[in-house]
Fold each of these.
Amino acid sequence: SISAALLGTRACIVIHHTDCGLFGRSDEELRQRVAEVAGTRATFGFLPFADLEQSVRDDVAALRASPYFPPEYEVLGFTYDVRTGRLHPVEE
């Protein structure tokens, strides 16, 4: 990543939040909704998910596997509860 290569960062944090509009929806449903509102269909995927913690794990794993970060680069995952304002660590 640019931050690791140019700025020397050694970690990043993935945070997904509760009550997300992508939770439990299908990609087609989201594309249809955008078409209704914007008047045109989205040509990209929205990456909806059915399990909040698993979606964090998936993103953490993808970042850790990325060739753009040094091997020792730390990637941490959390969920954010929008009702309580609390962060909860997501274990692997």
Amino acid sequence: MKIRIAAVGSRPREAFEELTQMYLERIGALLPGAKSSVDAPLYRTEGALAEALERERARTVPYVVLLDERGKQLGSEAFAGWLGRERDAGRQLIVFAIGPA
């Protein structure tokens, strides 16, 4: 399973890359090969993200999670359980989208 952390908007690329690197280092100890299974592109608009998702060629449709401070919050164990179930169900790509308000 591949994980994509997609940022949408005009936020500074350097700040996003720094945060992404921090998360990759954190999960690296828990997920062998994490750097090859996680990517973190930056999209200028929501439309650009949608177009990129349309171009994905895979057996399963990408699962897109829109991250929002008002959304459902999961603890670490619940999140790990959800992610494991998606992996076990054969999901090939999960996209966590971080965007403008």
Amino acid sequence: GPLFLSFALFLIGTAGVILRRNVLIMLMSIELMLNGANVALVTFSRLWGDTGGQVFSMFVIGVAAAEAAVGLAIVVSIFRSRARADIDQLTTLRD
């Protein structure tokens, strides 16, 4: 059930980070990985009757929101200076 969903989300996110070179797709893939981890945390939390996993899942959601905001701000600044956001071309922060 939920653990298979968690594994599938994490696997799709990992494949997106490894196989894609677009920064936006990589950010979305990292979000998928974090959501897969959240599903696993909540599943084990319910399985063991402990609320610690659910509380930690809320912290992960907060970190994911901050990561999305900072990541999108960086991508917007890259798009303003260049026409593309290909990860292979972004070797330095200068240019």
